[in-house]
Design a protein that fits this description.
alpha+beta
Length: 218
């Protein structure tokens, strides 16, 4: 249980720190043990001076794009070093993508090393994040989206599957008609309490259902 709990904590750190570059370059193209950061001060508030009144259709498009990105956490974790960076470049700006890829890679590598040292078969590791609700608001630069989701990690042979609830805040900007991530922060919760009589299943059992086709996150 401690092993999977540590793995879950590592995945929680994927993109935990906002590393907003503050650059106007928005071409297409997480953290180690540091505390979870609040959104950067350079990220404009929807209620702050100069906040743009983005059309509702644009806000909804940005919201759908952000939800889809959060739902790809498992895909990012499962990807190799090169393919992970290429995957991240598909949904981040050119200025933010490299930092996000570097920090995310370090968190994932630390998790995989820890699991490997405990003789956990990494081929059986399953990570899935499912967005539950979201809200979006216009900012001076684009749209800020907050996504509440549940993250599940199952490592057969290392105890029961584990879950964590978190809220991910994404700064979305538009480039050539595509909404891209230009800032990311995650914080734990809010977390609903499980029923006292709830049954906890093994990671093997959980990994079976996680292997089913994911429900659309948009």
């Amino acid at each position: 249980m401690a092993v999977v709990g540590g793995a879950l904590a590592a995945v929680m750190l994927v993109g935990a720190i906002v590393a907003r570059a503050g650059s106007s370059d928005t071409g297409p193209d997480g953290n180690t043990s540091a505390p979870v950061a609040e959104p950067s001060a350079s990220s404009p508030s929807a209620t702050g001076p100069g906040a743009a009144a983005a059309p509702s259709a644009s806000i909804e498009e940005a919201q759908r794009a952000a939800i889809k990105v959060v739902g790809r956490t498992g895909e990012v974790v499962a990807a190799g070093f090169i393919s992970r960076r290429e995957l991240i470049e598909t949904f981040t700006t050119r200025s933010f993508g490299p930092t996000f890829a570097d920090e995310t890679g370090r968190a994932i590598d630390a998790m995989l090393i820890e699991l490997g040292s405990r003789e956990v078969d990494l081929a059986d590791l399953v990570v899935r994040e499912q967005p539950i609700t979201s809200m979006a608001s216009a900012t001076a630069d684009g749209v800020q989206v907050r996504v509440w989701s549940v993250l599940i990690v199952a490592a057969p042979g290392a105890g029961p599957g584990r879950q964590v609830w978190r809220t991910v805040t994404l700064d979305m900007v538009q480039h050539d008609g595509v909404w891209l991530v230009d800032g990311w922060a995650s914080s734990p919760g809010p977390t609903p309490s499980p029923p006292a009589e709830g049954i906890v299943d093994s990671a093997e059992t959980v990994s079976v259902t996680l292997s089913w086709d994911p429900v659309g996150v948009a």
